[in-house]
Amino acid sequence: LHGLNFWVREKKSSTSELDYLYAFDGKLIPIEVKSGKEGALRSLHNYMDIAPHSLAIRLYAGERHITTIKTDSGKVYYLLSLPYYLVSQLDAYLSWFEKEVTSK
Q1: Mean pLDDT across the stretch 92-103?
Q2: Among the residues of the chain, which ranges form H helices?
Q3: Residues 68-79 pLDDT 10s
Q4: What would the pLDDT profile of 12-51 be if each residue is shown by its tens digit?
């Protein structure tokens, strides 16, 4: 799998979609792009419930930080929030992020 992809889950009750899936180190990392500092992450939670890993990215207008999140079904995952201007450094930040959360 190369380049950027996206994900859509269609159910009768609701639709979920992610902005991008990014192939990194054998994983498809979900990326949500938010227009401001805040925003609901329901589609991201839905994807992370089925993902075989625990790494996710949010690009937004805030500062860099890592958040531990628990989905409604109980899965714990880690969200790396990055300001938009760092997208060109995504591979380096994903390597750093993976080391940070696996050392916890």
Answers
A1: 95
A2: 42-50, 90-102
A3: 999 989 999 999
A4: 666 667 888 899 999 999 999 987 666 678 889 989 999 9
Would you state the pLDDT for residue 4? 53
Closest residue by Cα to residue 33 from 70, 1, 2, 4? 4
Spell out where the chain has E strands. Answer: 4-10, 15-24, 27-33, 55-60, 65-70, 76-83
**Can you read off the two tokens belonging to residue 77?**
């995952």
3 state SS of 84:
helix
Please state, in angstroms and rounded to a whole number, the distance separating the CA atoms of residues 59 and 87: 8
Dihedral sign, Cα of residue 98, residue 62, residue 18, residue 6: negative
> What one-letter code names the amino acid at 55?
L
For the chain, give the number of residues.
104
Looking at residue 74, its amino acid is G
Q: Rounded to whole angstroms, how far apart are CA atoms 96 and 31?
A: 16
